[in-house]
Amino acid sequence: MTSPLRWHDAMERALYGPDGFFVSGAGPAAHFRTSVHASPVFAACLARQLEMVDAALGHPARLDVVDVGAGRGELLRALLAQAAPELAARIHLVAVERSARPPDLPPEIDWRADIPDGITGLLLATEWLDNVPVDVAVHTPAGWRLLLVDPATGQETVGPPPSPTDTTWLTHWWPPNPTPAPTKVIKEFVAAEGSDQDTNSFINAVGEGKGGVGGRAEIGWSRDLAWAEAVGRVARGLALAVDYGHLRESRPVDGTLTGYRGGRQVPPVPDGSCDVTAHVAMDSVASAGERVARCAYSLVSQREALRALGADGGRPPLSLASRDPAGYLRALATASAAAELTDPAGLGGHLWLRQPVGVALDAVVAR
C-alpha cells in the first residue's frame, strides 16, 4: 500500500505527472465524449460567438483565440476550418496544453504550456476547470476533515482538518448538508482521532444520521485561482468557460468526484490510468473572475447558450425530404447533433460562464 495523499496532490500527479493521463497516451477524445468531440455544431456556435467578440472589439488586425486545456487541438482545428476567409486571415490560434504538440497540428495553431498574456479576443476553457486538482473534504462530528487517498487503489481515509483557506471557502461556498453519517465515516473519524471510546459506543453517542455529518465536498478555491488568472490574461475580449457545474443552493450532498476511461465511468483511482474529474462550483469561479474582470458576467445552461447561437434540435420539415432528399438528410443529422448538445440531462446541462473584459456584456451574449 502506498502512502496516502491529499486528493489535490494525487490528482496533480495522476493527470499531469510524467506519465499522467493528459500528458501521455491518445488524449481525452479516446476516453470520453465532450461537446467538442460530439458534433461540428458546437464549433459552429463558437464560431458565431467569436464573430460577436470580433465585432465588439471593432475587428482588430489580430484576433486572439486561446483554448485552455486544448486536448489535441480539436476545437481550434474546427474553428480554423469554419472561419470565413477574412476572419481566418486575422485570427491567431493558441492551444494551451501540457502534453507535447501533436505532429499533425496545422502550423497556423501555436502550442504552448501556459496562457499567454495580453489576449485581445476570445479565451476558451471547455471542460478544463473540472480537471484542475482539488482537495476533498468530508463532514465529521468535529466538522470538516480532509480525505486522503491511496494513489494505487483509490481507497480513502479521513485525514487532518482543512486549512483556514479551505475552511473559509467551504463556509461560504459549500455549507454542510445535514445528512446521515455512514458508519464507515464515523469509524474512520474515530481511528483518525485516536479516540479511547469504543467505535460502537461512539456511534451510539453521536447517533448515526445526527449532527450533519457524512457529506462530501470538493474544495474549489484552486479552480477560482486558476480561472481568475486566466481572466487576468485577457486585455480585451471574452473569457468563456464551459463545464459540468453546480451552484451553492444545489450542491451535491456526496460531491461529484469520479473517473473515466475508454468511454466508461470508472472509480476515481488516481494512478494515471483514467481521467479524475469533479464538477465545478461555477458561482464561486464566476465570482473570482468578476473580481478580476470588473465586468458583469453571464451564467446560463449550454442548452440556452447554444440555442441563442443558432443550434436547433428540432427535426426539419418532412416536406424537405421530397424537395431535397440530400438536404433533408443533412438537416436531420445537424438537428440530431444539436439535440445531443442541448439535452438538459446530458451535455445541455453544462454551464456557460461568459466574462467580458473591457467590452459590454450585451455585445458578446446572444439573446
Write a concise keyword list for the protein shown above:
Rossmann fold; 36% helix; seven-stranded mixed beta sheet; globular; methyltransferase; 17 strands; SAM-dependent_MTases_sf; 367 residues
Q: Give the overall shape.
A: globular
Mean pLDDT, to the nearest integer, reads 84
- Note the total helix count: 14
Helix content: 25-40%
Précis, in short:
The chain is of the alpha/beta class and 367 residues long. It has helices at residues 7-16, 35-38, 40-56, 74-82, 85-88, 164-173, 183-193, 199-206, 221-232, 282-293, 302-308, 319-323, 325-342, 361-364; strands at 5-6, 63-68, 91-96, 109-112, 119-126, 135-140, 143-149, 156-158, 216-219, 234-243, 245-246, 258-261, 264-266, 275-277, 280-281, 298-301, 351-357.
Describe this structure in words.
- It holds the Pfam family Methyltransf_28.
- It comes from Micromonospora tulbaghiae.
- Mean pLDDT is about 85; it is low at about 195-210.
- The radius of gyration is 23 Å and the shape is globular.
- It is built from 14 helices and 17 strands.
- The longest helix has 18 residues, at about 325-340.
- The termini are far apart.
- The strands form four sheets. It has a seven-stranded mixed beta sheet with strand order 4-3-2-5-10-17-16, sandwiched between helices. Strands 1, 6, 7, 8 and 9 form a five-stranded antiparallel beta sheet that branches.
- It has helices at about 5-15, 35-40, 40-55, 75-80, 85-90, 165-175, 185-195, 200-205, 220-230, 280-295, 300-310, 320-325, 325-340, 360-365; strands spanning about 5, 65-70, 90-95, 110, 120-125, 135-140, 145-150, 155-160, 215-220, 235-245, 245, 260, 265, 275, 280, 300, 350-355.
